[in-house]
Design a protein that fits this description.
Number of strands: 14
Radius of gyration: 31 Å
CATH architecture of the largest domain: Sandwich
Number of helices: 2
Strand content: 25-35%
Helix content: 25-40%
Number of domains: 2
Length: about 230
């Protein structure tokens, strides 16, 4: 009996030592987890603070370069439109003084075909635009464009980076189809974010176009005001 009591005492003592060891291990693990969590948090903050350049501000689908050089613009007419990549001059309405202001604008690239239709659908839903389903002879195009707000009175209320644009035939009139009928469509600037900075904004616009037709103009600027013209692709 005495021997049995001794064995029980030893077993209880071993159990207590095991519990203490487990608790100590758990405390150490918690300390390591807390240190790792703290390290990740600080690292994430450093990455976030390092991401934003002092010269660039991103918003929605666009970004603005605040210290960009002022673009050199070229004259354009319906007869002599600009090529993709060239800067023209167009009127943009300014809400801070209720008048039109001439701003430099250019088309950087035009993409169409492939998965562009679905890309436009997704972007329009994201920005709460109404998506018009293209007819079987139509497809969507995405034009990346830049607009300079360096001399534009942004004002306290800020401004959108939109610019009015139209699709026309190469003569500046409605595009003529093979059957002799006329075709026209509007252009949607996709980003609805408000900007409070003066600089060059990179953004996107989308429009429907007849499949396999490149004989069109992208006319940019308010109707009845200063407009510029770009050769379609």
């Amino acid at each position: 009996m005495k021997k049995l009591r001794c064995l029980l005492a030893v077993a209880v003592l071993l159990g207590m030592c095991s519990a203490c060891s487990s608790e100590h291990t758990a405390d150490n693990n918690r300390s390591v987890d807390e240190r790792e969590s703290s390290s990740v948090s600080v690292s994430s903050q450093e990455e976030v603070s390092g991401e934003q350049s002092v010269s660039e501000v991103s918003s929605g689908l666009s970004h603005i370069v605040k210290d960009a050089e002022k673009p050199e613009v070229s004259p354009a007419t319906v007869e002599k439109p600009l090529s993709v990549g060239e800067w023209g001059i167009a009127a943009k309405f300014c809400t801070s003084n209720d008048r039109y202001v001439e701003v430099p604008v250019r088309i950087v690239s035009i993409r169409r075909g492939g998965d562009v239709n679905e890309e436009v659908r997704r972007l329009m839903e994201q920005e709460n635009h109404y998506y018009f389903e293209p007819d079987e002879n139509e497809e969507y195009a995405i034009a990346e464009y830049e607009i300079s707000l360096q001399d534009f009175p942004v004002g306290e209320g800020g401004t959108l980076c939109d610019i009015t644009a139209f699709i026309t035939g190469e003569n500046g009139e409605a595009l003529v189809l093979k059957d002799g009928s006329y075709w026209g469509t509007s252009v949607s600037c996709l980003d609805e974010s408000t900007y409070y900075y003066e600089g060059v904004v990179h953004s996107l616009m989308a429009f429907r176009i007849i499949k396999n037709r490149t004989d069109y103009l992208l006319t940019v600027g308010e109707y009845g005001e200063t407009q510029t013209f770009f050769k379609g692709q």
